[in-house]
Amino acid sequence: MEYKNILLIKMSSLGDILHTLPFAAALRQRFPKAKITWLVHPQFAGFVPDPPVIDEIIYFDKVKFNKMNLLAKLAYFLEMRRLLHSKKFDLVIDMQGLFKSAVLAAISGCSDRIGYCEMREGSWLVSKAICGSHSNDHVIERYLDVARYLGASAEQIVFPLPDLSKETVSVQEKLQKNELQGEYIVVVPGARWKTKEWPAEHYASLIKMIIADGCSVVLAGGPDDTAKGEKITELAGKPMQLINLIGQTSLRELAALIKGCKLFISADTGPLHFAAALKKPLIAMYGPTKADRTGPYGSDDATVILSTAACAGCLKKECDDWHCMYDITPEMVYAVYIEKSRRL
């Protein structure tokens, strides 16, 4: 079937938005003349592809919505319903697969609603789950199964990324202000789940080894990671070769920072997928999450260090016996760093 007006729902998070980019590219390849609209939270809109991949963006402001009382929330949904109905979509693709996204799909006024294989929280009652041959593979391939269902070839993984020229200039200015010398490693110490984070003392030990080897390190991340960045800086002894830019870059500036780095290091966090999409050499530490499902995808030089804990891959956001990330030692990561550095 040839669709002319398509709504793609993928509101968050950063990593999930980035995982959806190859699907968006495949969707545009399949429907070159269709109008494609993306429904997203405002804070993640910076990485929704520009035209011609995506024609229009609609925002669902989660931060604003969560502060509303019940009546205000109802009014917000009614306003959203009027907006979505006015667009007259002939296909809605729910790539979020959660209750909230299912509600938005349901109130769109479109009867043709589909989603990927992992529809949760009752979203399968609203949209048809598409389960292809990659249902047990990486999430990017699971998303691409939906594109294949719609007739796209999806043979290549393509990340339609924004032009970062402006952000590259501003990042270079920040680095020059901090007297950066030579090449640098980007380290992002934060993560959405506490159980996914690598300990601050491990980062500090690793950074000291990297600096002793002759390379500068730039800490990066969002404002929520500020305290951890300060702790790492203190534990590392505040060396001149360590620059802390946590909370000092926009998402696009963070991507530009990663684009210019020699190598990227983090746990399972959104910026990791910037590095993969940009095909940067990277090292990722995984404990409670599963790299074969949500690990870095697309980079030719990605190394994932899996925790040796027997419970690794448990997917727990909270844990009474959390040690999986501690079990990945700084020495283990440094050994991989040295191996990669010799090839760079």
Keyphrases for this structure?
6-stranded parallel β-sheet; 344 residues; alpha/beta; single chain; 12 helices
Furnish the topology, listing elements before pairings.
Blueprint: E1 5-9, H1 14-30, E2 35-40, E3 56-59, H2 62-66, H3 70-87, E4 91-94, H4 99-106, E5 113-116, E6 128-130, H5 139-149, H6 165-177, E7 184-188, H7 200-212, E8 216-219, H8 226-235, E9 242-244, H9 251-259, E10 263-267, H10 270-277, E11 282-286, H11 291-294, E12 302-306, H12 330-343
Parallel strand pairs: 1-2, 1-4, 2-3, 4-5, 5-6, 7-8, 7-10, 8-9, 10-11, 11-12
Helix pairs in contact: 1-5, 1-10, 6-9, 7-8, 7-12
The number of distinct helices, counting runs of at least 4 residues, comes to 12
SS elements, strand count: 12
Distance between the termini: 48 Å
Q: Structural class, from helix and strand content?
A: alpha/beta
Q: So what's the overall shape?
A: globular
Strand percentage, roughly?
15-25%
Uncertain regions: pLDDT < 50 for 5+ in a row?
Answer: none
Helix content percent band: 25-40%
Instruction: Give the integer mean of the pLDDT values.
Output: 93
| Biggest pleated-sheet summary | 6 strands, parallel
Gyration radius over CA:
21 Å
Helix/strand order = EHEEHHEHEEHHEHEHEHEHEHEH
Strand order of the main beta sheet, please? 3-2-1-4-5-6
